[in-house]
Amino acid sequence: MMAVVGGRLATAAPASAYALDAFFAGQTTRAVALSPSGGRIAILEQLGTREQPRGVIDLLDAAAPEGQRRRIELGETAVEALEWANDRRLLVRVAIKRVIPGRKPPGSNLPGPSQTVISRRVVAMDHDTGDMVVLFEGERQRMRYSRDLGRVIDLLPDDPDHVLMTAWESDGVMGLHRVNIIDGKAERLERGNSATIGWQTHNGVAVLRRDVNTRWTVETIHARAPGETEWRFVRRSRIVDAPDFSWVGGGASPETVLVSARAEGEDVETIREMNLHSLAFGAPMQPRVGRDVLYGLMDARNRYLGAAYYGDRLEYEFAEVGLAAHHRAMNRFFDDDCDVHLSQVSDDRNRFIAYVEGPREPGSWYLYDKVARSMTNLGSRYALDFERLGGCELLSVQTRDGVLIEAYLTAPPNATPGPLVVMPHGGPEARDQRGYDRQVQVLAAQGWWVLQPNFRGSGGYGLAFAQEGWRRWGERMQEDVEDAVAQVVRDKGLDGDRVAIMGTSYGGYAALMGAVRRPDLYKAAISICGVSDLPDMLAWERRDDDTPTKEIYGFWKKRIGDPDTDALLLETASPRRRAADMVCPVLLVHGVDDRIVPAIQSRIMHSALRSAGKKVDYVEVPDAGHADWEAEVEKDLMERYVGLLRRAFA
Length: 650
What we know:
Layout: E1 3-5, E2 29-34, E3 40-48, E4 53-61, E5 70-75, E6 78-84, E7 89-100, E8 115-126, E9 132-134, H1 140-145, E10 148-149, E11 151-154, E12 162-168, E13 174-180, E14 186-191, E15 196-202, E16 205-212, E17 218-223, E18 232-238, E19 245-250, E20 256-261, E21 270-275, E22 295-298, E23 304-310, E24 314-318, H2 323-333, E25 339-345, E26 351-358, E27 361-369, E28 374-380, E29 392-398, E30 404-410, E31 420-422, H3 438-444, E32 449-454, H4 463-467, H5 476-492, E33 499-504, H6 506-517, E34 522-528, H7 534-544, H8 551-560, H9 567-572, E35 586-591, H10 600-611, E36 616-621, H11 631-649
Parallel strand pairs: 1-28, 8-10, 31-32, 31-33, 33-34, 34-35, 35-36
Antiparallel strand pairs: 2-3, 3-4, 4-5, 6-7, 7-8, 8-9, 11-12, 12-13, 13-14, 15-16, 16-17, 17-18, 19-20, 20-21, 22-23, 23-24, 25-26, 26-27, 27-28, 29-30, 30-32
């Protein structure tokens, strides 16, 4: 029988839902790390306030995790990440915020707007003596001009005094450096070109190089086998939309690496070996039918343990068969209601650090000890009681043409039937999962149900499922959303007269198109960084595509439609061109600097709705891109969303 240490205790009676502010309280635990030997645990905590942050590290004996913690004070600093460089020294990434006063423009006595600059640094610390050194500390010029010196890419397990890090050179080119964690001194090993953003290494040797286009939407991957001097082209992979190639780790020999990739003619993405000389792929490792792999699981010595997939929840196909029973035991501890990520595994396979997240679990770290048969809570991201959050159910939805799709339905904490908010995901070749979603929980706390359908065209279910949505924007993909709404309203007894739709990116498009197609159904629509005009969006993609063969434009033309042959289809599926058909109030939100969906898409939608005499509000977020704004901005926006929905549901 497993011992419960620091586990979750149910309250005696149902508790009230949280107020909106509670979801935006600062994150407390930032990271948990198990030492290479598995003997010590370090916990990085963010204390203080947003204005006066204070970072600390708590150290404990992994054999007695409930024992006395020893605290190391890091001072007034914002902390972001933590890992062990070796059994003695810790690496801590800190963020330093500076406000640069605005300059006076010529002919004026008034200064311009100030600028907030965040610089990232890595501090190496001896956990026994407390001695600290900032990596790259001796390079004053680099410390002055480089804002990001916080990227450790290889801990070099066989070289305990060094790590590999990337850092920008003075001319704006990325370099790969071997950095001494005792004195902070660095030696450059590689110099990239103007497009290089990083390398992947195997046994301390750079074997893959990653270059990026100017929009940061496509990576070009080059490989170099040990002993070779020239980099060779491997492939291009999208960064944001439907990526199909990613690094996993080193292979069984110096000439091979493990990657996640979808080979030509295959339906699902899988883990496989890639030979650095021939660039050929090996056979799929632990594949699943109808499921794309999420990531590969490696141990501290860079040994492959298995592949992660999303089924009913996060699941692993283990290469080491004995690990499966222990992962099942961890899942049972959480009543099979959470995703249990194995973030670290000790060399002897006795101790595991698990990062646990679920609809009612915003994120916590646990130590699982196989020999002690115990599960110990080490820290949590947010202080939210799971009893006061909405539970989530996985549904099987039958569409109008008889196909089964999956959807997630989150109930309000009291589970009383009421209004429904449907939230189509972005991508569209992404997917929703049963994880913690702050937007969803804020809406559920208002007493509303939240539906997240994985419509045809979503990612994660293999290429064939994604292709079911190609050239079906505004049609089949919308029908799947509508069918999911109809099923949950019928089966759960929800209020079909109070339904709203909101989403981000493609989800914003789906919200607008939903309001066009079903003015009888939706009482409000919220589009965040959404597309509104498909011909204009495709023209922008073609104009802005800086890849050699217009690969980005070709990607979207294949999925949305060809302007030369599908002109009528694209116009019909463009909400801006059908603004007159919309009845419900609309809220548009967009980041000014969005490089994925340009803000002009929301501006022209706003103009079309105003010209048609419709109710519309538009919020443009300065210094923000594709819904990447700070938590304070998101909090203000959530208040707007909730306010609009309350009025619509009144």
